[in-house]
Amino acid sequence: MRFDEQQATIYMKRALELAGRAAGWTSPNPLVGAVIVKEGQIIGEGYHHRAGQPHAEVEALRAAGVAAKGSTIFVTLEPCNHFGRTPPCSHALVDAGVETVYYATRDPNQKASGGHQYLVDAGIDVIEGVCRDEARELNRFFFHAMKTKRPYVIAKYAASLDGKIATHTGDSQWITGPDARLRGHQLRQAADAILVGAGTVIADDPSLTVRLPEIEPCHPLRVVLDSHGRIPLTAKIFQPDLAGETVVATTAQFSLEREAVLNKQGVAVWRLPNDANGRVSLPDLLDRLGADRKQSLMVEGGGAIHGAFLDAGLIDEVWAFLAPVVIGGRDAFGPIGGVGPARLADALRLDHTRLEQVGSDWLIRGRVTGVDQ
């Protein structure tokens, strides 16, 4: 059964909301939600909870039971058509007797795609494109990684109104309030990896874990840039009892003795090519993360690291939290360092921008102009 655009949008948005509940848990698979409707009533819902577990369509079909025959399903991604860790969802829909399939966007994974044609060949009415932009936004990490074989990079920072992330003495905790910090943890939950430099670890000794109330945390891989082994071995991120995994990204200059100690503490060491300045080559780091099937990287800085990613043209999205506070000081620290462009015309531009009030602070976020969803 086909629905008018307004009705179809309502059901697809419900499927998108379900899909988003698994943020952080499904990688390297996409976030997918499904809603089954019959005679104007939702008779089954589901979403993909974790990689290796049943897909959204199967969850929804199980909830609907035999009533799925003759129904309409709304799913946020083209039903898969391959045998992986789970059977093809396209086959399950045909076997259940589903009459109509709405899906938001095609699956870019060539191994999994083909569900559309399989369903059509089986005599099912298939409609593509409802809430397409929203579905691609939800899975922008997945789509980017499938296309580039590298993680989608988000530069995230908190700053004062005058663009400072710390005072001239380095004091930075806390510029923003608890609501903004909670929002930052939601982004951590969604990201596959989080990156900081040695300077941030030395100054703040962060744990870089996810701390969200009433949500099972999915801790991102902690990646620390430390080309010369400056971080104390007593740092929180190096302790064996800390939840999640830590990687030190470094160069050939890193001592073997230090690497052995870190390995005993459960910390991996990645020796990567260095750039012209003797620091870790960021493109090579992204290639390594992509090979490790990491689809998203949250860069928390500070300014030197953000500047390095900016100069290398490797930022895909920016999350800037702005607090209603003025720090001042010509020697105070800014959120973005590096060389920067010589001309304003070459400055990093954002589109698809959003402004969100978070407690007493503001979040401005947007994709770098030219970056596809």
What is the beta-strand fraction?
A: 15-25%
Name the assembly state. single chain
Give the class from helix and strand content and strand pairing.
Answer: alpha/beta
How big is the Rg?
A: 23 Å
What general form does the structure show? Answer: elongated
Q: Which range best describes the helical content: under 10%, 10-25%, 25-40%, 40-55%, 55-70% or over 70%?
A: 25-40%
Distance between the termini: 30 Å
Largest beta sheet: what is the strand line-up?
A: 10-9-8-7-11-6-12-14-13
Please give the count of helices. 11
Uncertain runs: none
Mean pLDDT metric: 91
**Main beta sheet strand tally, sense and closure:** 9 strands, mixed
**SSE order in H/E notation?**
HEEHEHEHEHHEHEHEEHEHEHEEE
Number of strands: 14
Descriptive report:
- This protein has 373 residues and is an alpha/beta fold.
- It contains eleven helices and 14 strands.
- The strands form two sheets. It has a nine-stranded mixed beta sheet.
- The two termini are 30 Å apart.
Present the secondary structure layout:
Layout: H1 5-20, E1 33-38, E2 41-47, H2 56-64, E3 72-75, H3 89-96, E4 100-103, H4 115-121, E5 125-128, H5 132-138, H6 140-148, E6 152-160, H7 178-190, E7 193-197, H8 198-204, E8 221-225, E9 246-250, H9 256-264, E10 268-271, H10 282-291, E11 296-301, H11 303-311, E12 317-323, E13 350-358, E14 361-368
Parallel strand pairs: 3-4, 4-5, 6-11, 6-12, 7-8, 7-11, 8-9, 9-10
Antiparallel strand pairs: 1-2, 1-3, 12-14, 13-14
Helix pairs in contact: 3-4
Short description:
The chain has 373 residues and is α/β, with parallel strands linked by helices. It has helices at 5-20, 56-64, 89-96, 115-121, 132-138, 140-148, 178-190, 198-204, 256-264, 282-291, 303-311, and strands at residues 33-38, 41-47, 72-75, 100-103, 125-128, 152-160, 193-197, 221-225, 246-250, 268-271, 296-301, 317-323, 350-358, 361-368. Helices cover 28% and strands 22% of the residues.
